[in-house]
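I'll show a record.
***
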Amino acid sequence: MKITSTNDIELFFKVLIYGEPGVGKTQWVAENVPKPIWMDFERSTDTLAKIGIDVPVMQAKDIKSTKEIKDFCFDIEKSEYETLVIDTVSTSQIFQLENHMRVKYGDDAKRLLPLFQDFRISTQTFNEIFFFLQHAKVNIVLIAHERTNFIGDGDSKKIISIGPSLTPALQESTRQLVNAVLRFQKKTTGVGPNAVTKRSMLCNSKGLYLAKNRYGIQETEVDSPTWATFMN
């Protein structure tokens, strides 16, 4: 039996980041994570090109099958990259569902609505990939859309939760992989020339925000976070 000291264990951060569109999730990841490579399922990295940030990208239009996604993820440890970014994990499920439909139904796929078993099979792909990545010696960043849930109508309408926009099955699959779920937000104080904008992340299950924290992060909110914030 091999016994390893905890001091000798390599530390890899596996995180789900979500937030409103345009808040800067993709840019923050590009500027902070070590040696990333993107699997871009909705051309989020186009915004990086516009501001002069160059990252290696595998775009959805160039991916021909779910097998290519699996092969790439299973080989990531052997590559030069230190962080795999899936942007967005929500759209990735749609890609894999459409691929499954094309394989199963051929030319009829565009005219048919997916059945429950089709959704189940597309989610199974995540289960296989995420189980492997859970133990892979590489950082993982999953980027997701944000969903706000309300209760009531009209003047009595209230927010009851804000969380990543994932199907229940995908959320369960993701939960097995990630160390933490972080809500990315941008806040502006002051007006005119005195306005100051800063980014922050909410890191635990406080208030309205759905988050997960088995990574030992104690702060409710981290201002101007960097990758080192979570790795130190």
Notes: The radius of gyration is 19 Å. The first strand starts at residue 14 and ends at 18.
